[in-house]
Structure formats: structure tokens, C-alpha cells
Amino acid sequence: MTWSYLKKVIRRLNILISQLSQLPKDFSRQLSTLVAKGFGWKETEIPLKVLVLVHAYWPQQFNVIIRRFNRINMPLSVFVTIPKGEHAIQIEELLPTISQHHNVSALRVDNVGRDVGPFLKAIDIFANRNWDLVIKVHTKASQNIWFETLVKSLLQSDRRIKHHARLLMRYPKGIIVHPLFRYPGHKQILTDPAMNRMTNDLIRHNFLVPTKWYFAAGTMFAAKTHLLIALKNESEIMKFTEFEDENSYSQSSLAHVYERFIGLYVSTRGDGLIGTSIIDFLDFKALKTRLL
User: Fold this and answer.
1) Running DSSP on this structure, what letter comes out for residue 232?
2) Would you give the distance in Å from CA 217 to the centre of its chain?
3) Sheet of strand 133-138: strand arrangement
């Protein structure tokens, strides 16, 4: 084992310890949601109004998302953004394979801002609808375990989606993420290019940063519409939405900056990042990727 590899493992172990430190808070929130009375809706009032925003670049991974959709019995509104390019036709050909009880629409977009730019465009389109829940997922070919773990945590079953809705009725200013992909932003400022860039912009805009906060690695989450609109408005003020084109992409690109700003925003202006489920702390595939 080389020293550089050992340092990498130690750093990841440190991150994992920070993630596990959130377990008591998650447990408290999950428990309070389960025992609370008057969530604002009853079982007889389902189906919920659920919007799923999908950014689909890779056909193979889009098939994985479609299989998840086809296991969900409740009707979903599915909006797919498809970047212009070599895979666009393949993605469009897969759209009819989504179960017909879901309401599916799609839009071709410029390949700018990775998955974040198209997501913000979709928020503009659907901002005036009264959604109980908005779920954001996207295809990711480079880290398949990440991709499958995050998609499963958000779209595992009808029961899981209803649980997201209950959590957000109790904590409407929070964002739901897989607990093992909730990274401690306060520990990465010196090592992360996107974090450095964001920090400089925050200083210019006098945005106060808490001593302890987390961001959602992978940018897949569930949230309420009003929070996403407020987040978008704040990020436009910070100029975090003026995305570079794909040719100028780097680890300090604004798509990565926005990924970090989401967590920072809900840490300072909302209920923070909320774990999808206590069970997901026992996701051994995810644990393995965190350490090795």
C-alpha cells in the first residue's frame, strides 16, 4: 500500500466519520416524522403530485432510471432534459418504454452546465405548479455505483417516495439526499477547486458560511418547489448560473460550484440536508466506495 493511497483512505475515513455523525439527527427527524400527527394529507388523499426531473445523457444509465420508474405504481410527472449531441436520438427512442401511467415529457437542451443547467431550466418551466415533491436525478457513466445507489435511494418504491413527501411536509426547507453522499463542505475548502472558487465568490457577496455544513455529492435529491426556486434566485445573484460550455469544463466549473452551494444554502437558510432513510446508512456498496 502506497503512502498516497493510505492518505486517500484516511481522508475518506474522516469524511465517513463526519457523515455518520449526522445519524442521530437523521434518526430524530425520521422518528418525529413517523410519530407526528396531521401531516397535511392522509393515505386516501394519495396520489401525490410528484415531479421527477431527469437529465439523460447516457442511454444505458437512462435505462436504469426507466426500470425504476416502471416499478413505481403511483403516477409521476416525468420531465426529461436531453442534451443535443450523439446520444440524443437514442434517449428519445427510450422514452416510450416508460410506463404509460406516468406523464412523460422531454426537452432538448444545449450541453451546458452538465446536469445543473438543464435542471434550472426545468425549474423555470414547472415553477408555477403546486408539486408535493420534486425529485432530481441524472445519468452518470463515470461512477456507476454512485449512480445506481443515488437513484435507488430516491426512487426505490412508492413507499420511499411517500416517505420523502412526509419528511418535507415536516421539514419543508430541507433537501433529501443519500446520507453517505452528504459530504462535509467545511472539511474540503482547502482541497477542492470548486470549493475554492465558491468561497471567493461568497466573500465578495458577504455570504456568511457556517462552521459546519454539508453538500450533496452527485447532485441527486428531493425537495419542495418553493425551496428550489429560492435557491435558484439566490444562486443567480451570486452568478453561479452563468455556466461554461462543455469544452471549458473542469473540476472548478460552475456546475460543481452549484453542487456545493445547494448544501450551503439549505444549511444557512433552511433545514439542511436530510438523509433519505436510516437504512441507507447500512448501504454497504456505498460504504465501500467511500473507503476504497
Assistant:
1) H
2) 8
3) 103-109, 77-83, 50-55, 133-138, 221-223, 174-177, 272-275
Beta bridge partners of 79: 53, 105
- DSSP class of residue 40 equals S
Element (H, E) at 282: none
The rounded distance, in Å, linking the Cα atoms of 52 and 122 is: 10
Domain boundaries, the chain: 11-291
Structure confidence at residue 39 as a pLDDT band (50, 70, 90): very low
* Structure-model confidence comparison of residues 15 and 169, the more confident one: 169
Q: Which residues pair with 50 in a beta bridge?
A: 133
Cell of 182: 452528504
Q: Give the helix/strand (H/E) hosting 6.
A: helix 3-20
- Please check whether residue 68 is in contact with residue 138, taking contact to mean a CB–CB distance below 8 angstroms: no
Q: What number of CA atoms fall less than 13 Å from residue 233's CA on the CB side? A: 8
> For residues 186 and 211, is the Cβ–Cβ distance under 8 A?
yes
Q: What are phi and psi of 111, to 5 degrees?
A: -85, 70
Residue keyed to cell 453538500: 215
Region 11-291: CATH code: 3.90.550.10
- Type of residue found at 178: H
Q: What is the pLDDT of residues 197-230, one digit of tens each?
A: 998 889 888 998 888 999 999 999 999 999 999 9
Query: How many Å apart are CA 259 and CA 243, to the nearest integer?
Result: 13
Spatial CB neighbours of 21, under 8 Å, sequence gap ≥ 6: none
The single-letter code of the amino acid at 165 is A
Q: How far apart are the first and last CA of the chain?
A: 12
Which three three-digit cell numbers place residue 4?
498516497
